[in-house]
Amino acid sequence: ALRTSADPVRRRVAAETLGRIGDRAALAPLRALLDDPDRDLRAVAAEALVALGDVPASDPAWLALWVEQGAWEICRSIGAQAPEAVVAELTGVLQDTRAYRRSQAISLLLDLPTEAALGARLLASRDALPELRARAVTGLRSDPASLARLVELLPDLPGVRVDLAQYFSGL
User: Fold this and answer.
1) Is the CB of residue 94 less than 8 Å from the CB of residue 60?
2) pTM, 2 dp
3) What is the pLDDT of residues 11-48, one digit of tens each?
4) What angle, 0 to 180 degrees and rounded to 10, lies between the N-to-C axes of helices 39-51 and 8-21?
5) Which of 61, 60, 58, 45 is nearest to 12 (CA)?
6) Burial (CB count within 10 angstroms: exposed 0-12, middle 13-18, buried 19+), residue 95
7) Of 102, 104, 100, 142, which is closest to residue 123 (Cα–Cα)?
8) pLDDT tens column, 46-76
9) DSSP state of 158
10) Are 97 and 83 in contact (CB under 8 A)?
11) I want to staple 26 with a disulfide (CB 3.0 to 4.6 A). Which of 18, 48, 84, 164 is the partner?
C-alpha cells in the first residue's frame, strides 16, 4: 500500500504505521517517500523516519516541519549549512501569535551568520513584546558584524553614519 496504492490517505496511513511499529527495515521505503510528489505524504514519511531515529535533519526542504514541531536544534543544524533557508522560515515565525515560538526564532536568528539574518533580526527588534525586542536589539548590539552592516546601509550624509554608529553602540 505504501508505494502502490492510488489512495493518498492509505499511503499516508501506511507510512505513519511503519513509524509506529518501529521496525528499522522500514527506513529504505520511508526514505524513498521523501521525494514523493504528495507533500503530506512526505511530511508523514519524515515524521515516521524521526520516530525510527533516522532524522533527515540536513535537508532544508523539511524546515517547515521542524519549525512547526519546534525542533529548534535541527533548524540550527540546517542553518549551519543553509542559513538563507532557515532565515526565510524563521521570518514567518516572527509573525506567530505565540511568544514562545517568536522567542525561539529570535534566539536561532542570533546564531546565524549576520549577512543572512540581518533583515530578520531587524524585524525581530520590532516585536510587540518588550522583552523580545530587547533580546533582538541586544543581539544586534553584541554582534559587531551586524552593526558594521547597518552602518554600511545608512545614507552617506555628513555625520549620519558616525552618529548612528555611536547610537547603536550605546544601546
Assistant:
1) no
2) 0.62
3) 999 999 999 998 989 999 998 887 787 877 888 888 88
4) 10
5) 45
6) exposed
7) 102
8) 888 888 888 766 778 677 778 878 888 888 8
9) T
10) no
11) 18
